[in-house]
Amino acid sequence: MKKGILSKVAAVGVVAGLIVAGWFIASEAGRDKARAAAAAPTPAVPVTVGTVEKRDVPVIVRGIGTVQAYKAVAVKTRVDGQIVKVAFEEGQFVRTGDLLFQIDPAPFQAALDHASAAKRRDEAQLAGAKLDLERYGKLLGPGFQSRQSFDQQQATVEALTATVSLDQAAIDTAKVNLDYTEIRAPIDGRTGQRLVDLGNIVTAAQPAALVNITQLKPIFVNFTVPQDVTDEVRRHQAQGPLAVEAYASDDRSRLSVGKLTLVDNQIDTTTGTLHLKATFDNADERLWPGEFVNARLVVTVRKGAITVPQRAIMQGPEGPYAYIVKPDNTVQRQAVDVEETQDGLAVVSKGLAGGEKVVLDGQYRLTEGARVKIDTAPVASKAG
């Protein structure tokens, strides 16, 4: 009986020993794995990088503006009549003097013919009156003609002379009216919608235009800028004309480049803005009257500015910073001073030097001294 109990106790002791030995071995293996994991290097963080560059950066003042035609004319008739010819297509480019409309000239030609005939009649009467006056003058001395008859004949000659002058004025008026039956383009420009059709009766007194013409080359852009830049704009404008770039409403597509031609003589007190006007050649007609555009006034150029892609700049509790990639592929967090950002570029006045490598993407996984793996794929530039 005692031997059986001792055998069981011995067996339990052996099992317990085995369990303890197994636990010890497993613990040692776990500690070995932990030590190996701690000794292994931290995986490098994949990033893309860019280079800090020195470049000339324009100092830009931005404003929102509208395109205004250089000239705009509402074409109207100066005589009454029926439209018998339309000589242009809607939207057509026309030059000064091109025929637009023809009003029936028959009534005006008849008036001219009538005035011409009246003048010939009165000139004939005047010629006869002058001959009579000459005869009266010869007979006045010998006493065969009275002074009264001579004076009356002289008055007749003067009256007929005035009548001939009136006839000439009527002829001139008839010629002018006849010329007015041909309505011609007063300026170079592009026609709009035709507002009358062939056969319509038009009058000089009607308020509506026949067609509108706008001159597109050159063209204006009116825009406003904050009053704070007034002194800077006027100071640089005095040194030479300033360039103005017109961009589409997306502020990415540049439409045209012109020159600043007007700085208004007062600030708008209701908005605190200064009104400016720029002139563009608009040879390709990319600017269109009434169009809203984003205007960029280039006040000056900052020479040799330190620039980086804007996405390299991060914002922290203590201000903007960037990660500089060191030669050993570790990063250093560097505080920077950003003067301005434009078109995907940040102009840095302090903290970076030309030629340094900075992290563009992957910053959120970085800490001071972290190792990085540089993605060698080309980085698309976001600068304009």
Q: What do these coordinates show?
A:
This protein folds into four domains: 40 residues; 83 residues, conserved putative lor/sdh protein from methanococcus maripaludis s2 fold (Beta Barrel); 100 residues, Beta Barrel (Elongation Factor Tu (Ef-tu), domain 3); 130 residues, Beta Barrel (OB fold (Dihydrolipoamide Acetyltransferase, E2P)), CATH 2.40.50. The chain is built from four helices and 20 strands. It is rod-shaped.
Overview in brief:
Helix content is 30%, strand content 39%. With 384 residues, it is α+β, with helices and mostly antiparallel strands.
Descriptive terms for the model:
single chain; 384 residues; alpha+beta; conserved putative lor/sdh protein from methanococcus maripaludis s2 fold; Elongation Factor Tu (Ef-tu), domain 3; 4 domains; six-stranded mixed β-sheet; six-stranded antiparallel beta barrel; 20 strands; rod-shaped; disordered C terminus
